[in-house]
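Section 3.1: Structural characterization of target chains.
Under the original work plan, the team committed to producing a structural model for every single-chain target entering the pipeline before any wet-lab resources were allocated. The record below documents one such target. The sequence was received from the expression subgroup and is listed exactly as submitted; it comprises 430 residues.
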Amino acid sequence: MNTKYFPLSKADLEKLAERYPTPFYLYDEKGIIENARRIKEAFSILPGYKQYFAVKALPNPVILKILATEGFGADCSSYTELLLAELTGIQGEAVMFTSNETPAKEYEAARRLGAVINLDDFTHIVFLEKTGGLPELISLRYNPGPLKEGNAIIGKPEEAKYGFTREQIIRAYALLKERGVKRFALHTMVASNELSIPYHVETARMLFELTVEIQAKTGVRIEFVNLGGGVGIPYQLDQEAVDYQVLATGIQKAYNDIIKPAGLEPGIRTEWGRVIAGPYGWLVARAIHKKEIYRNYIGLDACMADLMRPALYGAYHHISIPGKEDAPLSETYDIVGSLCENNDKFAVQRKLPKIDTVADSVVSGGNGNSADFVVIHDAGAHGRAMGFNYNGKLRCGELLLRQDGSITQIRRPETVEDYFATLDIPRRRS
């Protein structure tokens, strides 16, 4: 069983909430850095290893700068993410641009930054040539179809919209070589949040075999193989985290079995996001209402506009109540938000300690400050990044717990003025 931690006490949160009202995201700088270093150390046994952080997971330049200091690049999938990488000082081949249905503007931006462009479709070769121009180095994204199983989040590869078929990718490398491209890379992404080490090793083996086949059929030597992302984290208490050293050793064995006998020596890349930041971020909210009908509900001041994974995927996120860590799990609640959607739930029929709400306090003559905080764990990736404004909800801010114990706001909450700023409406006369 894995252990969930939260770095602040209830007293710490009470003080913090005076400056930064809930809800907010909190990230642990020390945890992220130590995790990044464990990854680098484990994968240093692989030739030319480099990790691109998946910007989509946590698109905040402060976090990107922290990871850039640790030698990480950026995996980008849109124009805005390219600009975030540039703002952070990550440029050139430290940027991997993997997109799909890509507008010319985005290819042009990737070319300007010198990013490694990872093409998603055969037709994009000529499209890129006519718009941004073909760079010296191009990567292609492989979709193995029925040769590889997906999982519940990303789906079956043969039903996914991404990548080249095997036959297409062979033809594409030959065409790119004819068109004057000098350097080549290979990429895939076939699962998301996958904890099985054999699954990831088998993905590497599949790409290594394809690398050898490409060289034999086209003469193209792959400069690096990007194994993609997809490594999961143990959201459930009975799950175990992926052992980086065991995974790296398994990939090394596949490399030695397949790549070395062919006389090739491509470098290895990954583009992880969730596993790097996920366990080191939390959504912190207040319990504001209690409702007792056919079920018992606790309503938060956060909603699925702040964290949509449970509603979108039925995903589990552990929940803790600071100050009640040792209290008996005496109650069964649905933990919900205030959206006009019945799937706006962070937990369903979850066993938790008795939770005190703002409404309880106010009805008793208090000011609500005694209400419990509700901490939603493993929210450091694909949390705030997937926020939205349905019902006119304003997305919450982000705080960073620095290594010295200080806390800094790294993204302010949205305001009503932000929401209305994009609307073309007459100004109301005062």
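Residues 150-155 have pLDDT under 50 and may be disordered.
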